[in-house]
Amino acid sequence: MFSSIKIYFFIVLLGLGGGVVWYYKSTQATIMELTQYNAELTATIDEIEGINEQNIENIERLRADNERQREQFISVQALINNIRQQNAELRDRLGEHDIGALAAAKPGLVERVINNASSKAMRCFELESGAPLTEQERSAKNAKAFNSECPWIYDDLVARGLLIVPSDTTADSSN
């Protein structure tokens, strides 16, 4: 009987030893698997942080682009308002006269006026396209003397510092 207890004890011990070995091996496998998952997660986190930094840079660039576009929009809107004002002035000037009746009554006078105005208007296009100023335009004392068809160009050239206003006058086109 003593020997059967030893055998049972040995079998229990063998079973416990096998269980410990199995537990150790499965625990080590789990630890290796979790270590691998941890390394993958760390790499993924690093990649996500890099992408996040790029996204932050892109957002800042988009904000700067948006601000620049907003400023350009305001500038274009101001130009459009200026053009509308110029169109209104031109409409008022042309609305003051019945050109058809004047042409029938005084064709020579109307022809001369229209030709002179057309010539001045063409010079406006040349100036807006970057043509150099003539000596007469450089020495103009006010916007009307500069070019009566587009006096705003005088004010613009003065504002940009490309034309110097004589000290006894101003750039105001009403002079």
Structural class: mainly alpha
How would you characterize the largest beta sheet? none
Distance between the termini: 134 Å
Order of helices and strands: HHHHHH
Helicity, as a percent range:
over 70%
Global mean pLDDT: 87
Stretches where pLDDT falls below 50 for ≥5 residues?
Answer: 169-175
Strand-residue fraction? under 5%
Number of domains: 2
Quantity of strands, as a count: 0
Question: Could you walk me through the main structural features you see in this protein, from its secondary elements to its overall organization?
Answer:
With 175 residues, this protein is an all-alpha fold. It has two domains: 95 residues; 62 residues, no CATH class. 80% of the residues lie in helices and 0% in strands. It contains six helices and no strands. The N and C termini lie far apart (134 Å). The C terminus is likely disordered.
Features:
single chain; 175 residues; mainly alpha; 2 domains; 6 helices; 0% strand
Write the layout of secondary structure elements.
Elements: H1 2-95, H2 99-105, H3 107-128, H4 135-138, H5 143-146, H6 151-159
Helix pairs in contact: 2-3
What would a concise description of this structure say?
This protein is mainly α. The protein contains 6 helices and no strands.
